[in-house]
Amino acid sequence: MLTIIKDKKYKLGWRIVCRFVISLHKKDLHILNGFKNFFGVGILSFMGENAVQYRVESLEDLAIIINHFDKYPLITKKQADYTIFKLAHSLIKNKSHLTNKGILELVALKAVINRGLSKDLFVAFPDIIPALRPEVLLPKIVDPFWLVGFTDAEGCFSVVIFKSLTSKLGEAIKLSFILTQSARDRDLMSSMIEYLGCGYITSVDRGTIDFKVAKFSSIRDIIIPFFEKYPLQSSKNINFVSFCEVARLVDNKAHLTEKGLDQIRIIKNKTNTD
Predict the structure, then answer these.
(1) Which of 54, 77, 162, 257 is most solvent-facing, going by the fewest CB within 10 Å?
(2) pTM of this prediction?
(3) Residue 204 in 3-state DSSP?
(4) How far apart are CA 270 and CA 274, in angstroms?
(5) Are strands 155-163 and 43-47 parallel, antiparallel or unpaired?
(6) 81 vs 219: CA distance, rounded Å
(7) Among 50, 54, 52, CA closest to 21
(8) What pLDDT, in 10s, does the model give residues 150-161?
(9) Cα separations (Å) of 27 from 10, 33, 53, 106?
């Protein structure tokens, strides 16, 4: 994140800060503690009732974060944001933010990172020319642990019970593995099909796209064995365990009986309240 806000305490009237932030539900506090211990820098803060944030702000500590992502590059379009963030960090480190010229450079960077310019910045810098966003190479997934981390952040193991005219019980079960990402990362999501050997891409109206695996044989033979071999690290693993329970019941045709369907309903309801 690159933050530029009005502040009379500063000579030029602007406070400029770079931050590295990861926010998670409080049930995944152990994940954020793991980041803090791994990097050896940063602080943890509770944000409201359910969210926890790991945050790194000092220039010296951010250098540790930058060194990590230089060594292990991002493969989503967020790599462009990271490159801009790194430029901003360098400008601030060199005290360019204390000059009018430096502030203009930083505002130009801010225009193309995160959510762009705030209303205050638009008014204060109406003639600013946004910086060019760096090009990001076509993504290639080469590490299963990357996919595990991505799923911890963006994945969903879905169990849906729906009305069905073709089912003897009037209801049927659908299992899906879903990864959601901004539409700008369509190439990355499409590469999932080749990497896992299953699934398809669907566009969502809200500006995102889904990689989805809904074919039961693919879930049983590819998705479940993958995450059994490479376990999830977040509380999402609880959902995965329940997902596997339902898949076993479906594989054994238990969902075609009242008793089996009730079992699946209990598992589903328990997962949704965890």
Answers:
(1) 162
(2) 0.85
(3) strand
(4) 6
(5) unpaired
(6) 34
(7) 54
(8) 999 999 999 999
(9) 39, 12, 12, 36
